[in-house]
Amino acid sequence: MLCLSVGSLVGCSSNPAGPSISHVVLISLQDQSEAEALLADCDRLLVPIPSVTTYAAGDHIDTGRGTVQSDYDVGLVIGFDSPEGYATYVDHPRHVELVETWGPKFSSIRVYDIHDPQ
Q: Considering the chain, what is the average pLDDT of its residues?
């Protein structure tokens, strides 16, 4: 964590070099046994999209904390440097292919877009 102090003014940034837009997606599948295949397709299709600057994908990890939600099968966090990069991702043929292939297999999807102006 980077923290700066100037007199009584204190500001902290937990990730000063991170993306300005984080696209968080939590997916529940109709058939939980397909989670590994979905993750493989996410890795194959989403990582090469040119506007993706950061990427993480996986399943829930039990940390023993009661406040951590576990009601999903696959979680994605994808970063972009700009709204234009995010728009490029949404319309990119690889993203469209993933959504068209896997969307019918979702029982639910939650999407959160977080803006960090840094």
A: 87
- Using a pLDDT cut of 90, give the percent of the chain over it: 75
Q: What is the pTM of this model?
A: 0.81
Question: What are the residue ranges spanned by the domains of the chain?
Answer: 19-115
Q: Say which DSSP state 108 is in.
A: E
CA distance 10 to 2: 11
- Indicate the burial class of 20 (C-beta count within 10 angstroms; 0-12, 13-18, 19 or more): middle
What CATH number should be reported for the domain whose range is 19-115?
Answer: 3.30.70.100
Listing from the earlier edge strand, what are the strands of the sheet with 21-29?
54-58, 74-80, 21-29, 106-115
Structure tokens at 71: 């009601």
- How confident is the model at residue 15, as a pLDDT? 47
Contact 45, 95 (CB under 8 A): yes
State the pLDDT at residue 17. 62
